[in-house]
Amino acid sequence: MRLLKTIAALSISLAFSSCSDQKNPQELINNEHVSAEAKTGNVLPVTITHGFKSNSFNDGFMRATLVVTVDGGMQNDWIATAIILAEVLAKQGSDMIEVTVDRNDLGSVPAANMHKHLARVSYAPDLKRSVSFDKNWQIAAAENVVSIEMLNATNDYYALYKKYTSEGMRDNEADTKAGKVIAQKYKLASEWRLPLPNLRETKLNRNDIFIKGQEKDLESVMRINACMKGKVNFAIKTC
């Protein structure tokens, strides 16, 4: 079925940029242990769409989650943005942190979360206080970013598929019929495929990423500090 086949839609190549630029010590952001082969990433301006921090656990354990959106950037920028925000939350006293970076270009286009995400990091500064992590960093990043046209095609496909199956059509028949209708409507190849989820787990660790800029001057860091520093047991939707 189309639901189980791999993507053949328009996607954006997200290869890491090379790290050939000479590193200025004044630009280091918690980069004391980065490797010589580290990938370079810029911290992008963010809009907060969800923030949560709570210490309502045993032994004062504090958990924090943050979801932000960004405009543009490349894979290494999305990862760098997620990492620096996680480190900011760690400095605020959080023991278990998850930061998700989402795309900000969808407007009113319905899209499943799996197509919104650009990067996600989980960070446990002290593994002795971690309840589920077996390493300090877990980093996932988008390998393909689906075009808005393909998202529209996907949404239309699911609507037709649901309609056909609700009318009693078999799954395979509904898949084939809906696929043909969508291919014609959006001028896709006859064997077009539904897009796979954006995020893929990586083998990257913190020392694989060199983050450019000075922390005190970064707009995103200042925003997170202004919205979340010194606060516990709260949730925000926007800031």
Beta fraction of the residues?
A: 15-25%
Q: What is the number of helices? A: 5
Strand tally is 9
Question: Could you tell me the radius of gyration in angstroms?
Answer: 21 Å
Range of helix content? 25-40%
CATH topology of the largest domain: Diaminopimelate Epimerase, Chain A, domain 1
Supply the number of structural domains.
2
Summary of the model, kept short:
The chain is an alpha+beta fold.
Describe the SSE topology.
Layout: E1 39-41, E2 47-54, E3 63-70, H1 75-91, E4 96-103, H2 113-116, E5 117-123, E6 137-142, H3 148-166, H4 171-186, E7 199-201, E8 209-211, H5 219-228, E9 234-236
Parallel strand pairs: 1-8, 3-4
Antiparallel strand pairs: 2-3, 2-9, 4-5, 5-6, 6-7
Helix pairs in contact: 1-5, 3-4
Signal peptide: 1-20
Protein name: Lipoprotein
Keywords: Signal
